[in-house]
Write a structure and sequence with these properties.
Layout lengths: L4 H8 L23 H16 L11 E2 L8 E2 L4 E2 L4 H7 L4 H8 L4 H10 L6 H10 L1 E2 L2 E2 L1 H12 L1 H29 L7 H14 L4 H12 L9 H6 L6 H6 L13 H21 L5 H15 L3 H16 L1 E4 L2 E4 L1 H8 L6 H6 L1 E2 L7
Antiparallel strand pairs: 1-2, 2-3, 4-5, 6-7, 7-8
Length: about 350
């Protein structure tokens, strides 16, 4: 197995301090596709982080304003203007223009027009400006929201969202199997690896898939014992979480109440720094988990600060099984083990594995 321990140990300030490594599960028969329980489990976990409503039909009509700097995000997996993913969703709706004209008589034509413009980076600023014009300080105009909910809840739109999710699942499986085969020497991924790439695909869109594959290919060329990515290590010495690495934030769980918006992601990141460092020092992670955490950091580093902190919080949660993201403190490790053992999990079980974060406790 390829090991990245030298790089990650230096990045966490733990070089030479950890010897214990849990034994990984014995390999099973190769999987040719994600089991249904895996697809459903990953979807529930990501929907919880995206919308807080993983099992309700209302998830299809969920919408969020520009507080995350994505302009406007809609639906079960929060397709948005900032990443241009909303254009892909609109493309999957048969005669989207006619449906928008019926469901959104006042705003439908503009919504569909600017959703499509968000696909191209050159026209995306115009699309974002429009998305921000239908809200105030991130609060969506009520009249617009009523129309949009009707559009999103139409059976054709629900079907389009489900079809879009199938694309995410296929993309995640492709990345997870390459990670497992090329970097871990296993014929099939673990559930946590599939869920990691599924959440990556949903949150970051398709724009960075080539870059992710390129990083994976580069990491696979390293030999056991080599220091991985010296530049990463030199910038990462202050802690495990992205926010600590970039801003020299203390690696301790904050004692103040968690704030909202971007500052909340920083709060989560600071807590994760302490939690993940303790997990690694206590031998609670496997080498594959730590290597996935390195990939999460490298992907996060190319993003803007506010987005990158949140991305690293979420991917670190899937890499280690425990952590804070979007104002939730979750421990998915028991659920990960159940899914790897061939069991399924429910939305109630996933929700029950998370709680509100507590000052001083994470």
């Amino acid at each position: 197995m390829i090991r990245f321990w030298a790089a990650l140990g230096l990045g966490l300030g733990l070089a030479g301090s950890v010897q214990a490594q849990p034994v990984e599960p014995a390999p099973s028969a190769p999987l040719t596709a994600p089991p249904i329980a895996w697809a459903q489990g990953a979807s529930i976990m990501t929907r919880l982080l995206e919308t807080a409503a993983p099992s309700s039909l209302a998830v299809y009509t969920t919408m969020a304003g520009d507080k995350d700097k994505q302009g406007l995000s809609v639906g079960a997996l929060q397709w948005n203007f900032g990443q241009g993913t909303i254009a892909d969703l609109i493309d999957r709706v048969p005669d989207a223009d006619a449906l928008a004209a019926t469901a959104m008589p006042f705003h439908g034509a503009d919504f569909v027009k600017y959703a499509r413009l968000s696909r191209d980076p050159l026209t995306r600023p115009e699309a974002l400006a429009w998305a921000r014009s239908v809200q105030s300080d991130g609060v969506i105009d009520p009249a617009f929201a009523i129309e949009l909910a009707g559009f999103l809840g139409d059976p054709a739109m629900v079907a389009a969202q489900d079809a879009g999710e199938q694309v995410f699942r296929a993309s995640a499986w492709n990345l997870a199997t390459k990670w497992s085969a090329n970097l871990q020497g296993r014929p099939s991924p673990h559930f946590s690896e599939y869920a990691f790439f599924y959440d990556m695909r949903v949150q970051a869109g398709a724009r960075y898939l080539d870059e992710i594959e390129a990083v994976m290919a580069k990491l696979a060329t390293f030999k056991a014992g080599e220091t991985r990515d010296v530049d990463f290590v030199s910038r990462a010495r202050t802690g495990a979480a992205f926010v600590a690495m970039k801003n020299d934030v203390p690696c301790v769980i904050p004692t103040a109440k968690r704030p909202n918006l971007a500052a909340g992601h920083v709060w989560d990141g600071q807590a994760n720094c302490a939690i993940w460092r303790a997990m690694i020092a206590g031998g609670e992670t496997q080498s594959a988990d730590r290597e996935l955490l390195v990939l999460a950091f490298l992907r996060a580093y190319v993003g803007s600060d506010a987005f990158a902190v949140n991305l690293f919080n979420r991917k670190g949660l899937f890499a280690t099984g425990r952590g804070l993201a979007n104002g939730r403190s979750c421990d998915f490790r028991i659920l990960f083990a159940a899914l790897d053992a061939g069991e399924s999990v429910t939305a109630d079980q996933v929700s029950g594995a998370c709680r509100a974060p507590k000052p001083g406790k994470g």
